[in-house]
Amino acid sequence: MDGQEPPQFYTGLVAELYAPLRAAGVPDPEPYAAFITASGEPALELGCGQGDPLLALRARGLDVEGLDASADMLARLRLRAEADGVEVVVHHSTIEAMELRRHYQSIFLTRPTFNLLPDDDTAWHALERIRAHLEPGGTVRIALFAPERTERGALGTARPHITDDGAEMSVTPVSETRDVANRVQITTLRYELRTAEGDVRVEERPWLIHWYTQDGFRALAEEAGLRVSEVRAPDGSPAAPEATDVVVWLEPDPTWDQPRAARTGGGAVVAAAMLGLEQVVFGERPKVQVVAEAEADGLDHGDIDLDLDDPAQSRITLAAED
Ligand SMILES: C[S@@+](CC[C@H](N)C(=O)[O-])C[C@H]1O[C@@H](n2cnc3c(N)ncnc32)[C@H](O)[C@@H]1O
Question: 122 and 48 in one domain?
Fold first, then answer.
């Protein structure tokens, strides 16, 4: 796991109750299998959680790996994989800081994972990392949506489930805030579990959804070196221009040159995708991260001049390896 603060929602009791209480049901693997077949292998699912649709895709023999920020979700995925006799490679990292050795032809996120990234700055970092892990001819498929407000009458109403062994569980939306200017809705969800033995556990968690207009998402992707090639409704029909519940396909922009895209929001100085640069000020980015990226991109980190007193003055000289 990278050194950044991981998102906390899908941990502990929520990871335990996620599968039996999920409102949207198990994602159909079919559209993802079709995507990988069309776009190519290897593939990577970001936010693979407990393994839907990743395990079904692996069971079909597709070369697809997973990545997730939650160790608890990945632990459940590994148990399922073992029980089903499916071999799978998964990485523990946030999307926005991922540094994997492999590059991929196909990268995808099921709904609502991209909308869990809390703001545009984090989303830009995620898109930049996605681009850095794509093969030159690769394709990205991202499902996006905008949440409805929870109806007043639904606040306080539990969605229950009883397991075969008599455990009672529920999730209840208890309050909600909506910030339209920043396209953020936070619903506080109460998860409850009463085991057959009568033990009770309760957790309240803020579930944050950050949404996009199609134009806003396109602009953010372009800043990260990705071009939107197609936008469709979830059923595959053409998407209306104002639709926010969409599936977006993206490709790397071959004309993108990285330095102008450095995004400084959130206080982080980003030496965004350093390929092509001779010298990079990496500022607040940890040296180890810059070096790992350089290596992953096949660059030799020749001169490193690390100024511990003033990290923004530090320099790293990169050259293509012979
Ligand atoms: C709604 S769940 C979907 C999981 C999976 N598709 C499934 O059905 O089992 C979203 C997943 O995204 C992960 N996630 C959220 N934010 C993330 C981030 N910034 N980086 C990596 N994973 C993240 C969560 O840990 C969670 O497992």
Answer: yes
Domain range spanning residue 278?
257-322
* Helical axes 214-223 vs 120-132, angle rounded to 10°: 50
Of 4, 25, 166, 183, the C-alpha closest to 97 is 4
Same domain, 268 and 291: yes
Span 204-231, pLDDT tens digits: 999 999 999 999 999 999 999 999 999 9
Fill in the amino acid letter for 124: W
Q: Name the residue type at position 181.
A: A
User: Within 10 Å of residue 215's Cβ, how many Cβ atoms?
Assistant: 11
User: Ligand 1: residues within 6 Å at CB?
Assistant: 7, 10, 27, 47-52, 68-70, 73, 94-96, 110, 112-113, 116-117
Give the pLDDT band of residue 171 (cuts 50, 70, 90).
very high
Mutate to test the pocket of ligand 1, among 70, 76, 122 (most ligand atoms within 8 A of CB): 70
Asked if residue 312 is part of any domain, the answer here is yes
In a domain, 6, yes or no: no
**What's the domain count of the chain?**
3
When the pLDDT of each residue in the chain is averaged and rounded to a whole number, the result is: 85
Does pLDDT of 284 surpass 50? no
